[in-house]
């Protein structure tokens, strides 16, 4: 029976996703935007992904956590693809919240993603490509005081932010945790270049993590297999990350929630995708509920999202679309449970025409025309253009 219910749930969610794609005739992953930066003295482009529900007028508008992605053009497809699968209910999967992604391409990578000016390489030789290094403090200030406020006034954002960086982007994420820890709730450093500037960030790690100050913050570090006996610079990269992890494991008294994983089968270039997946699962551990329990009990849904809210530090409501889907699955099986789920949506989203539409449909299925009319009238009052409610009211009243 559990398998049959699950199979029906998956089919229902797949069919809805397919209908949304077919209705547009195109698949749009995101948009390209830009803004002038006074701090960086240049026009900065960024890519924005909004989840499918963002512009879906079927349900009430909601607010979304935001993931800020460094080296954004390189990793935009992988991160948005993961969120599309993990957060939107594809195959009944709700393991992370739907999120907005703001991906920031580079204009001068060595400038923006390095914390200090370094002119010499590992061997002590001056290198032209290092002449513009050390601009990270300005770049992080741009993120904090220009880009984030712009995003939060332009989009419907929830008070939860994630910063993700790979390689030099990884040390930018760690530097942000050191210097502006209040700006993001979670930080992801994938194979970070902790060798930079004679392991400067590694040397600072013990001081940052051995004292309180990072409660309610999360850091996930992923390390690739870059051991190479023929190249000592590669080993410096590998050993620096391993030592950083050792510091966290031995001295973390900061309140920071920390996760680490070594990817022995991945190199520096292949590790981002799998580490992004694991980082999202780590950050939002506990978000995933038991859909079978949710089908059985709206009380479970309330309690589960109360726990999620406590963990993430802001109020996270059960997504209206998810609860509605659960109710639709239950309706042909048990109208009492379906009505209870739809009623939960009506309580959480009292101005939602869809919530009352669903209640009307459920009472029609139950055979109570009078109650169905009450809910369809509420739905039509909230949205006079609601054709379904108007059609049902005409049908039910004419049949009286």
Give a description of the structure.
By secondary structure, the protein is of the alpha/beta class. The protein has 2 domains: 30-283, Alpha/Beta hydrolase fold, catalytic domain (Rossmann fold); 291-398, Alpha Horseshoe (Serine Threonine Protein Phosphatase 5, Tetratricopeptide repeat). It is built from 15 helices and 8 strands. The chain has an 8-stranded mixed sheet, sandwiched between helices. The radius of gyration is 25 Å and the shape is elongated. It starts with a helix and ends with a helix. The relative contact order is 0.10.
What labels would you give this structure?
single chain, about 400 residues, alpha/beta, Rossmann fold, Serine Threonine Protein Phosphatase 5, Tetratricopeptide repeat, 2 domains, 8-stranded mixed beta sheet, 15 helices, about 50% helix, elongated, disordered N terminus
Q: Report the sheet with the most strands, covering strand number, pairing sense and barrel closure.
A: 8 strands, mixed
Treating each run of at least 4 consecutive H or I residues as one helix, how many helices?
Answer: 15
Q: How many strand segments?
A: 8
Proportion of helical residues = 40-55%
Number of domains: 2
Taken from the alpha-carbon principal axes, the silhouette is elongated
Which architecture of the largest domain per CATH? 3-Layer(aba) Sandwich
Strand-residue proportion: 5-15%
List SSEs in N-to-C order. HEEEHEHHEHEHEHEHHHHHHHH
N-to-C terminal Cα separation, in Å? 38 Å
Mean pLDDT: 91
Rg value:
25 Å
CATH fold category name of the largest domain: Rossmann fold
- What is the topology, as strand order, of the major beta sheet? 1-2-4-3-5-6-7-8
Strand-pairing-aware structural class:
alpha/beta
Per CATH, the superfamily of the largest domain is: Alpha/Beta hydrolase fold, catalytic domain
At the first level of CATH, what is the class of the largest domain?
Alpha Beta
- The low-confidence parts are 1-8, 13-22
